[in-house]
Batch of 4 targets.
Target 1
Amino acid sequence: MTFTWADFVSAEPRFAGTVQSRFEKYRHHVLATLRKDGSPRVTGLEVTFRWGELWIGMMPHSRKAQDLARDPRFAVHANPGPDDRMADGDVRISGRAVEVRDEEVRARFVGELSPPEPFLLFRVCPEEVAETSVDGSDLVVRVWRPAGPVRTLRRGPGDGPPREDPREEV
């Protein structure tokens, strides 16, 4: 089953709000796609949240568009900000990018956002959403996958295994 951003928001509204807010803080982010040979490609990108969905757009003949046409798997990492404080945590979304060819959806997108044309429009289907932050001496990772609720893992400064927190309010 394919999950959409709206499905994620429905399943985990507070966590989805945290992630969306973090992405909306800055305009430019980093997209990772897969090249023909399977090696990673990273490139700059803007993301757009509209109508309860997450969208990415790009020029039709860009390398990242060619990568996604061949293999829709991607990861997008939120801009970490202007310094090393990471005050709002670190977030990323990975999944599949599905090209949108529906002319009504594309026209609505153009009408509201006026992207440079021509462009390709992709709807994000998240398969993993993660937030990393620091709490005291612990590294805290919150992860959502479509199969269940948000999991929270903590790793301390030693070499012990991560500890799973009981479900926290996210």
Target 2
Amino acid sequence: MPSGTTLKLKQQRSRERREQILAAATKLFGEKGIDRTSLTDIAGAAKVPLPSIYDYFEDKRALVLEVPERNFEALYQKTEPLLMKGVDAVEQLRIIFNANFEYIAENPGWGRVFFLEIWPSVIASEPQIKIAVDKYAMRYVQLVKQAVRAGSYRRNLDPYSAMSLMMGGMCQVTAVWLLYGRKYDLVKKGKTLFSTLNAGFLRTDSAR
């Protein structure tokens, strides 16, 4: 086998193992909590030798810091194919907002570890996590700005306030869903939330 092919296979296996570890960490952090999850637990769930984890992460903290970035990237991969060319900014907002709830419903471990473990704690201020969250939040800001320029949203709508309302509502709806045993349809609740917020953002005759 040519050396170039061998190298590519090794790189692919390395990426797959890293993904296995991150997926296992997300699941266990969500189920047991970060403090109660050990690297030994994660190695067992990922089906890798414990020393392998140290090939990719310096310690558990480094692994925790990478969980949000990994899940946001997975969310982008889920969302981007839905953003068809020519779709207006409001529709794109609806798609990415609803896709977030769909992703959490499919991956409740991620929802629990982020909204109940990471976001309410001091670890949310870590630069690596702030960068991942800011990247996600700025997508909302950019789309709100586009909707304002297009005349769909009122001219006096502050894009950053709109983003804060959307992300704050998302946190609240998701946290309640997780804390009270997932007793309602999270995706349906997210769609209703978007409709409510969107109605407040829309241009009215007096705001033209």
Target 3
Amino acid sequence: MKNEAKNKKKIDPKESIRRAKTARASRPSWKLVSEGKVYTWASKLERVNIIRSGVPYGSIEVISKRINAPIKEILHIFGLPQTTYNKKLRENSLLNGRDSEVILLLTELIDYGQEVFNNEEGKFQRWIKKPNISLAGNTPEDLLDSVTGIQEVKNCLNRIEYGNFA
């Protein structure tokens, strides 16, 4: 019993604070630039604040360019007709909460996907358009219309990153 007490490490609050600061500094952060405004976040709570404020309709075009997909395909993800999109874009309107969240999640997914493919955009863009066995034969692009689908694509990228294809 006495040996167990001797072998236990004492908690060093200064060391805990140092480790927390290091972890905070090394965590990923994301950036979305749309219509001249920069949105940055490094945590889920920061993402929530951006979602509540909304992101501009122009961010749909940013996502379209980043995954090299026609704007019509991206509008399909959001269930938006082209005419509504054009009108809202002219009015400098903001997306609703759900659509803002999808934009931010897609930004995170694209950044992660490019990182997994060693920042080779072409490889990532080809992968996102190919049918994938681990996604039940769907293309990753087909699953981007829901938060759950985006998470499944992210899980698939995680398996690729760590070499776990099972």
Target 4
Amino acid sequence: MNTLDSTDPKQFIADFFTSFTDELLRSDDDPALIFDRYHTPDIVQVADGHRMDRDKLIAHTRPVRKNRPTSRIEVHEALADGDGIAARYTLSVQNRKRELAIEVYFFGQFTPEGRMRQAHMLTRAVPADADTDADLAEQTPRLVEEQEPSA
């Protein structure tokens, strides 16, 4: 596992999520053991206002593992300061039923050996075929119009 102080922040966050997901989906090891290799026991993650501790996060891995989706992460920007990292990335996921893309604003704290201690995330769905920032900027007005209630 890479350490935050020895890796470019964009590469660190991409490697962290890619290797965690790959190991979770391609291994028969207990999900809790895999989870603990990447997270501290006192991990707290708040995603869109929903707080999850270690037990809730491990429970969240079980349906992901069962469905075995494919995913790809594109880190658009990332900054590190000490043990903290802020990043904006797009997570593209495809499972048997659908393809989706999620834009993520991530603020996290990591241990010196690269395990996640804390994370705060804001997410929003974006068109699954929007591969670049330019595509997202072009799609945003249409997404807003689709979400606004009609008068």
